[in-house]
Structures are given as C-alpha cells and as structure tokens.
Amino acid sequence: MRRSSRRRRTVSAYREGDRTVVLIPARMSEAEEQRWVSVMLDKLAAQESKRVLGDTELSERAQRLSAQYFDGRARPASVRWVTNQNTRWGSCTPSEGSIRLSHRLQGMPEYVVDYVLLHELAHLLVPGHGPRFWRLLESYPRTERAKGYLEGVVAADRLPHLPGVRGE
Q1: Beta bridge pairs of residue 78
Q2: 38 near 31, Cβ under 8 Å?
Q3: CA distance 93 to 91
Q4: For the chain, which domains are there?
C-alpha cells in the first residue's frame, strides 16, 4: 500500500515481482483503503487471467509458425504480450529463449502479428539482422506487406493531430 498526497481521486495497482502495489490518495480512510485493495486485487486477477489465455494462444501460434517456416527449429521457452514496449513491435532474448510482443499489435491483421512472431523466432536461430537472418524470413510470403503495414502505422503515429487523421 502506497499513499500519495499528490493523488486526489484515483486508485491504481500493479505487480512488482511477487508483491502487489496499490496506490491510493493519502486522505483515504482505512475502510476505503481495505475496500479498494480488494477491488484492485480482483481487477488485477481478471487482467492476468485474460493475459495468460492470450499468452498461451500466442505461444501455440509461435510453435505452429516455427513448424511451418523453420522446420520446428525455433523453440521459444516463453512467448507473451507485454505493455512496456512502445518503440518496438517485439523483442527476443535468445539466451533465455523468451519472446515478447508489444500489446500494440493486438487487433492488427493476423499476417502482421505472424510476421513479428516469425521475426522474433528467427532471432532464436540467428541473433543479428545479417543476410542469414533475412534469408530465414524470405519463406514467409507476407514479409514485405507486413513490414509496409508497420511502417504505415509508425508514420501515422507521427502525424500531427488533424481532423480525419487516425480516425479522429
């Protein structure tokens, strides 16, 4: 529990390792604090159960793509969605076998998510971005289309706030 004199009305919670941190306004009573702790724990549990299901499906998808395009040679230890990647679409730590995809990909066309997954799976086989790495991705027929889609998303995000831009 962390009380803040700057916090006026909002309550938030997050996981910090194996601990849960709940942030509340300093003026809250103990009864309000206990009620909010319960509410926020339930909310975090619901979010995590949704994410676990999503991560399981993502891991299964990675296995299928590895089998189809890399003869099953890319075997990640973990594949999961993350919310802390705002400048990358995905990342891979080959030494751990872990792949993380930005939550910003959720809702994009499947071929785009598949491309990013394949890109990260390829890093399990070839760590850098040299010619050998790019040859691995040549087998995916929508590589260029997916790269173009992602470039368009980045370009649209850089546009100034104008009526009609980005659905506004």
Answers
A1: 98
A2: no
A3: 7
A4: 2-47 (no CATH), 55-167 (3.30.2010.10)
**Mean pLDDT, range 94-110, rounded to an integer:** 91
> How distant, in Å, are the alpha carbons of 7, 22, 41, 84 from that of 28?
10, 13, 18, 30
Cβ(119)–Cβ(137) below 8 Å? yes
Each residue of 118-151: pLDDT tens digit? 999 999 999 999 999 999 999 999 999 999 999 9
Name the nearest CA neighbour of 101 among 135, 72, 65: 65
Contacts of 80 (CB under 8 A, 6+ apart): 51, 55, 58, 59, 98, 99, 100, 101
First to last CA, the chain: 39
DSSP H stretches of helix in 17-109: 30-70
Which DSSP symbol is given to 93? E
